């Protein structure tokens, strides 16, 4: 083996140093590119995060509106049901009262018919008595005429 003199050794070290400087520069360039890309991604992610936050606020606001609509609808439905049942009960009560009144009117009409029937019967009895009396009077006048002759 040959011995390397100092100049050759320095030249080799300088060559290695230049290569290492090139490699370090390439690595630094890659790191700079990576940092730039991370910064760009950071801005992109920040804008996306802002969009997500805005979307979440809008969703929360619409859900709050939906909640109030749901509550109003539920209350309205309950009120409609209560009023419907009350109207049905009022109608039922009205019909029952009308039926009762109709029954009272029917009873009054039946009593009136019974009274008229009794009056008619009494009138008929008086008429029959009058006819009987008239026949007797006629028969007695006929007999008295015959006896006079």
Describe the protein.
This protein has 149 residues and is an all-alpha fold. The chain contains 1 helix and no strands. The longest helix has 143 residues. The model has no long low-confidence stretch (mean pLDDT 88).
Q: SSE layout and pairings?
A:
Layout: H1 6-148
- Total strand segments: 0
- The H-and-E topology, N to C, reads as H
Q: Could you give the distance between the termini?
A: 207 Å
- Would you tell me the structural class of the helices and strands? mainly alpha
Radius of gyration: 62 Å
Number of helices: 1
Keywords:
149 residues; mainly alpha; 1 helix
In short:
The protein is mainly α and 149 residues long. The protein contains 1 helix and no strands.
């Amino acid at each position: 083996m040959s011995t390397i003199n100092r100049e050759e050794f320095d030249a080799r070290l300088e060559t290695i140093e230049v290569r290492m400087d090139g490699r370090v520069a390439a690595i630094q360039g890659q790191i700079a590119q990576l940092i730039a890309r991370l910064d760009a991604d950071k801005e992109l992610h920040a804008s996306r995060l802002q969009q997500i936050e805005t979307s979440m606020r809008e969703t929360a606001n619409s859900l709050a509106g939906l909640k109030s609509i749901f509550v109003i609808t539920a209350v309205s439905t309950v009120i409609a049901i209560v009023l419907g049942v009350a109207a049905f009960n009022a109608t039922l009560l009205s019909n029952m009262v009308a039926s009762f009144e109709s029954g009272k009117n029917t009873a009054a009409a039946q009593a009136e018919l019974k009274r008229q029937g009794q009056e008619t019967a009494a009138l008929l009895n008086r008429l029959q008595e009058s006819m009987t009396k008239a026949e007797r009077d006629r028969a007695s006048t006929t007999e008295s005429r015959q006896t006079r002759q």
